[in-house]
Amino acid sequence: MTRRMTVLVAALGVVAVLATACGSGRSDDASSGDTVGGDQPTEVASGTFGTVEEVCSDGDASGATDQGVTDTQVQIGYGDDAGFQQSPGLNHQMSDAMAAFIEWCNDAGGINGREIVGNYHDAAILDVNNAMQDACASDFFLVGQGFSLDSSQESVRRECGLPSVAGYAVSPQFANAPIKWEPFPIPADYTNTAPAAQIADLFPDVVTKASVMFGNYAATIDSKDKIVNTWPEFGYEFLDCPQEYNINGEASWLPFVQNLKDCGAELVYFVGSPAPNFQNVLSAAGQIDYRPIWYVDPNFYDASFRDWNVDGLADNVYMRQSYTPLEEADAEPSTQQFIDIMNTYGGDMNQLGQQSASAFLLWATAAKACGSDLTRECVGEQLDTITSWTGGGMHAEANPGENLPSECGLLLKMEGTSYVRVYPEEPGTYDCDPSYAAEVFGPERERANLDENRIAQL
């Protein structure tokens, strides 16, 4: 493939997406099938999802084969940071999707006849160790979770031997951890640079006047470092005015945006959460008529942020995606099926939820292949063999078995209270190029302390 090639989602047949550290808060008006998706609902409890056929079904599996597994049940953990006081409901769409897909799978017969029991864990960002200790005590696997401070969990998780098919990973310690898989990997030593090429193509005059704005904790620093260390390959030059903010908020955001304006930054990568911090940043920037191109991560694809933009302050916000947007469900049946399942079983939905759904399907595919012999070792061996995955067609192809990123992506922007596709323009397509799976050199890779097998050492 060459740069600027577009690939139909349906043709890809397999997974993914990286999320950044912090996600969206709970909204009373989340994206749903009432406002997005096609007109014809799919059959919900079929056990088949998109191109992933009969992943859930009846069967005669039996035996207490491992922790959390009995003749009739298998317990898996999932979770988010919804209890974080500064952003209530943070990333709750991930757990909403997990709860819905567990119920969907059980209605189709479970995993070879075993019922799935889901255990919810709230890490509340700063309580991740306690959440992990609870998971260690009960769960067969952690599946579809997203914990912002996942570096802090690793000594606990590794000590108890709890495997994970995560919704996303943030820290280098977890991104390249042992007994860990993702449907759409973004490891410490590789990353997806599709948005760098796409923004440079759209706005060639701004790439030499770039800056970054990030929170004062590990998750956002790791994400920032990857951008700063990989985007120069596409012509970017970062000005000497990075802005570090307090993740718990600032008394005034005006000094930050004034510094960026005075520095001459015309493109700013903001890493964090949309509410309340970035919304406050945009409001402050509007007060001084500062309107750069803002680039953000997929967690900004969220109904509450979309609905907030009634005054157009976010109209210059661009975000990367690797999943077919919910608004384009007519172009991808698996995206419509995701919407149908969420509407049937309940819960808010966004791209983070799609990530968790893909992680669940990846885990379930491997677990089903183990039959009655449902052990952590068997599921791990099956996961290692899955080197092409699209979550049934919901997103671009990635390589979870070898922990390598996708070569594809797309770009959305805000226009009023809508998300609009800008690159590539055709619904249901991605922009793909081998160079977009870029190797990373710099502080994040150094923090990973990788061995010869690309496994992070604590």
Main sheet summary: 9 strands, mixed
Question: How many DSSP E strands?
Answer: 16
Q: What sequence of helices (H) and strands (E) makes up the elements?
A: EHEHEHEHEHEEHEHEHEHEHEHHHEEEEH
How many angstroms does the end-to-end distance come to?
Answer: 37 Å
Secondary-structure class: alpha/beta
- Global shape: globular
Structural Rg:
21 Å
Determine the CATH topology of the largest domain. Answer: Rossmann fold
Strand residues, percent = 15-25%
Number of domains: 2
Please identify, by name, the CATH architecture of the largest domain: 3-Layer(aba) Sandwich
What is the CATH homology-level superfamily of the largest domain?
Response regulator
Could you name the ranges where pLDDT drops below 50 across 5 or more consecutive residues?
A: 1-42
Helix content: 25-40%
Q: Kindly report the average pLDDT value.
A: 90
Individual helix count: 14
CATH C-level category of the largest domain: Alpha Beta
Task: Give the secondary structure arrangement, pairings included.
Blueprint: E1 5-8, H1 9-12, E2 73-80, H2 92-107, E3 115-122, H3 128-138, E4 141-143, H4 150-160, E5 164-165, H5 172-175, E6 180-181, E7 190-192, H6 194-202, E8 210-215, H7 218-230, E9 243-245, H8 254-263, E10 267-271, H9 274-287, E11 293-296, H10 303-308, E12 317-321, H11 333-345, H12 351-369, H13 376-384, E13 408-415, E14 418-423, E15 429-432, E16 437-439, H14 443-448
Parallel strand pairs: 2-3, 2-4, 4-5, 5-6, 8-9, 8-10, 10-11, 11-12
Antiparallel strand pairs: 1-15, 7-16, 12-13, 13-14, 13-15
Helix pairs in contact: 2-11, 2-12, 3-4, 8-9, 12-13
